[in-house]
Amino acid sequence: MWALVKNGTVEKTYSRPIATTVNKVYYPKEMFTLYSTSEQKAIGIYPITLKSKPDSTLYDIGSYSYSYDGGTDAVSEDFTTTEKDLSTLKTSHTHQTQLRANDDLRRFSWVIERYICDNTKTIPSSVKTYMADVRTHCSTITDAIDGCSTFAEFETVYTNIYDSGGTYYTWPSESASVASYVRRDFK
User: Fold this and answer.
1) In which band, very low, low, confident or very high, does the pLDDT at 9 lie, cut at 50, 70 and 90?
2) Which of 32, 43, 79, 145 is the most buried (most CB within 10 A)?
3) What residue spans define the domains of the chain?
């Protein structure tokens, strides 16, 4: 992104290269990519230093603003952020966790149905153990979410759920004997 600066004030921003007129002089869109930074600044065009955005799952980003700093001779971006509603986040991520567990478990529903129809065909212990592990992991995550009374607590739990290496990130894995009972034809 770039900004047109006149008299120390950002007058216009450009999100992509476009042909533009500055001080009654026409410049082709290639000016944004072919001119050096010093050549652009001589015209009044400055690259914008973008502010790091927070996770949009947790925060709403408000209005953007751009300002010129004469001391650094640079333009920077700023914006407001607000935390999303804690109750809504908890409900949404509890539901997502339960859906994940359900998806993992339903691939074995045929084994349970087979047992109900013919109890001589048992449910393998490895499948029972895996399914119990998935349910336990789901409960651990949903209990952690439910236990959050502040946004900061939720943000920590959220990180542990979705960031690689987080406490809750790795779900139970299927052993070879469990994988042989998976039915992947569910839509």
Assistant:
1) very high
2) 145
3) 2-83, 86-179
